[in-house]
Structure formats: C-alpha cells, structure tokens
Specification:
There is one protein chain. By secondary structure, this protein is mainly beta. It has one domain: Phosphatidylethanolamine-binding Protein. Helices cover 9% and strands 43% of the residues. The strands form 2 sheets. The chain has a 5-stranded mixed β-sheet with strand order 1-8-7-4-5, covered by helices on one side. Strand 7 and strand 8 form a beta hairpin.
C-alpha cells in the first residue's frame, strides 16, 4: 500500500488547505443509503460512485450535517480500486446522531497520483431514513 495519498490527505486535514484542482473537474455520480446504518456509528454506509476518471488513485469523502453548507462531521480517504462500490466501513467518521431527522451530505472528490482533484460529486439523504 502506498502511504503517500494518506499522508497527503492528513496534511490537508491538519493544515486546513485545499488540494489543487484540475481545470475541468469531472462530475461524479454518488449514491448511498442509510438503511441498516446504526445511529451514532463510526462505520459509514456503502457508496456507489460512477463516472470516476481513469486517472483516479484515491477517493476523498467529506461528511456534513445539514447539507453542503452544514457543519463538518469528518470523512475519510480510500484507495480507488476501479470498482464502482466502496464497501461500508471503508473509513471511520463521526456518523449521524440527530435528536430528530436531519439531512446529511457526503461529498466525494477523485484525486490523481499527484493529489489533484479531478472529479467531484455529492449525495445527501435524511437520517434516520
């Protein structure tokens, strides 16, 4: 396993800066379901990611409560294997723990070997389902 993308992601997370972006970022298809996801878990659901650029080496997940402008709840980075399915539990995060029902969004960025963002997509669903 190449630790370089993980170190790059950790530096970005700690430094608060954004990775460089390609001139034309490809739109990713992102989907997930909360069905079967326990409240307050650290295990994210399964994701289906489509239209991933061939040069993608890692997928970077960002999780927000309340949608795109909501509070950051964490995320994670996984190596891209070429599969459209990212299995449940592929990274750890602070999962949904609302008192009622709240909308949550995952944004996924595709990064190439240099750490440049070459694709981006998002999906949001209310929790609990």
């Amino acid at each position: 396993m190449n630790a370089k993308p993980l170190i790059f992601a950790a530096v970005l997370a700690l430094g608060g800066c954004k990775p460089p972006e390609a001139a034309n970022i490809a739109p990713l298809d992102v989907d997930f379901s909360w069905v079967g996801t326990a409240r307050c878990t650290s295990v994210p659901p399964e994701f289906k990611i489509g239209r991933v650029p061939p040069a993608t080496r890692t997928l970077d997940f960002t999780f927000r409560a309340g949608g795109a402008g909501g509070s950051m709840q964490g995320g994670g980075t996984v190596a891209y294997t070429g599969s459209p399915v990212v299995p449940a539990g592929s990274f750890h995060y602070l999962g949904p723990c609302p008192l009622g029902t709240q909308n949550y969004q995952f944004t996924v960025q595709a990064l190439d070997a240099s750490g440049t963002v070459i694709g981006r997509g998002a999906a949001s669903h209310p929790f609990p389902p």
